[in-house]
Amino acid sequence: MKKLIILSILAVLVLAGCMPQAGDGGGPAKITYFHLGLEQPEMRESIDQLVKKFEKKHPDIEVEVQSVGCDQSYQKLVSGFNDGESPDVIYGGSRWVASFAAMKAIQPLDAEGEKRLSLYPEPLQKAARFQGKSYGIPRGFSSRTLIYRTDLIKEPPKTWDDIVNVAKKVQEENDGIYGFGIAGAKHVSTTTQFFNFVFQNGGEVFDEKGNVKLNSPEAVEALEFYADLYRKHKVVPNPLEYNREDAQKVLDDAVAQIKKEKLEPK
Predict the structure, then answer these.
(1) For the whole model, what pTM was predicted?
(2) Fewer CB within 10 Å, N or C, the chain?
């Protein structure tokens, strides 16, 4: 089973343990780089430019880029681990680190990698660790925030009760729209969307010893509220039909419609 290091492709420059050997016949050494979700043209273009920049700086190394859709990436990699056919370098979610390390499919960072990881804030370092060892270097991270339409809502909600009340008011004053949106489809991003409410309520997914805490009163209350946004309060469309990316598209379409209305002559 091939061992991997999860990191940004730029980090290949500094991780001595990951540098490839010369290829057969004296040609350039080849490494395979897996990046999920490159079916999006703008993302593919960005990665291709990065690879060209890397190869120009290191003419003795040739990079082969591999990719499948975000939904298929995890299973694709696991199948490769089992078959002995897996990439040398992976760009993926930090949520994969624990499972891949437990499978012994990836190897810890060396001293130079640890030095690079130490440049990041502690929460990002923690996301790359499993059982005391580090397995990756952050390339990016996301922040959670509440996005609202200022043309419909004067003051953003500050509590869960506010969310319900504001959403109901929006629906009462505007036909054909919902006051709020959440994700509930079977998708990898749905759990992180729900976890926002767990953390807001003082809950946690695991304790410091690794015990699952999703049955705590705080987590149960968060799940009940999340479900009741649809079942009881009726302020969101059926969440089973939406994942995080779908919800973003709905918002983008709404913003596009607002811009169109402003541009059209009265």
Answers:
(1) 0.65
(2) C
Query: Is 243 within 8 Å of 196 (Cβ atoms)?
Result: no
pLDDT of residue 258: 46
Whether residues 21 and 127 fall in one domain: yes
Burial class (CB within 10 angstroms; exposed 0-12, middle 13-18, buried 19+) of 121: exposed
Say whether both 196 and 111 belong to one domain: no
Using CA atoms, how far apart are residues 29 and 60, in angstroms rounded to an integer?
6
Domain that holds residue 232: 160-263
pLDDT of residue 4: 44
What would the pLDDT profile of 236-257 be if each residue is shown by its tens digit? 999 998 887 776 666 655 544 4
What would the pLDDT profile of 97-134 be if each residue is shown by its tens digit?
989 999 999 999 999 999 999 999 998 899 899 999 99
